[in-house]
Design goal:
- The chain is mostly beta strands.
- The chain has a single domain, classed as Exo-inulinase, domain 1 (Jelly Rolls, Sandwich), CATH 2.60.120.
- It is built from no helices and 12 strands.
- The protein has strands at residues 2-3, 7-12, 21-29, 36-46, 49-56, 60-67, 70-79, 89-96, 101-105, 108-113, 122-129, 135-146.
- The strands form 2 sheets. Strands 1-12-3-8-9-10 form a 6-stranded antiparallel β-sheet, with no helix packed on it. It has a 6-stranded antiparallel β-sheet with strand order 2-11-4-5-6-7, with no helix packed on it.
- A hairpin with a 3-residue loop joins strand 5 (49-56) and strand 6.
- It is globular and about 40 Å long.
- It starts with a strand and ends in a 7-residue tail after the last strand.
- 35% of the residues are buried.
């Protein structure tokens, strides 16, 4: 996915019946575009109601929510040793049991939303670019497990 500066591209998968699930993607941000980011969209009811977990090529993550069209940064860009720099693959995972949402990077828990406001809904991926340059994000895979996989951890 090639994304122009200060833009994002996303896709949802039409999985509106998800209640308890694990969503996972693995992606690489091209080495020359560390201001690029990739991530997961969850509980997507419509363009005004969703959460997203983002990771950029500088080893940072951010969590955002949009509720009734109001945008809020839940967790600002935060550096973590759990994320790799641009040019290296990162795996993002969401475990959603219908109430609590757990967000992981490369199998390390980053953040938990214990009582998420938005109801269960569709899921998807997102890629974007901040700053002045375009970004290239390559998604290697996206996987969704429902019900049983969530309780295995």
């Amino acid at each position: 996915m090639l994304v122009w500066p200060n833009h994002a591209g996303w896709a949802t998968f039409g999985l509106d019946d998800l209640d308890r699930y694990r969503l996972q993607t693995r992606f690489i941000i091209a080495p020359g575009t560390p201001a690029g980011y990739g991530g997961l969209i969850i509980r997507f009811s419509d363009e005004a109601n969703f959460y997203q977990l983002l990771a950029d090529g500088e080893g940072r993550y951010q969590i955002q929510e949009q509720i009734e069209g109001e945008f809020l940064t839940v967790q600002p860009w935060t550096v973590t040793p759990s994320l790799y720099l641009a040019g290296n693959p990162n795996t993002l995972t969401v475990d959603d049991d219908g109430e609590e949402i757990r967000l992981l990077a490369n199998e390390t828990l980053l953040y938990s939303i214990p009582s998420a406001q938005l109801p269960s809904a569709d899921v998807g991926i997102v890629g974007g670019a901040t700053g002045e340059g375009a970004a290239s994000i390559s998604f290697e895979y996206v996987r969704v497990w429902s019900d049983s996989k969530v309780d295995e951890d």
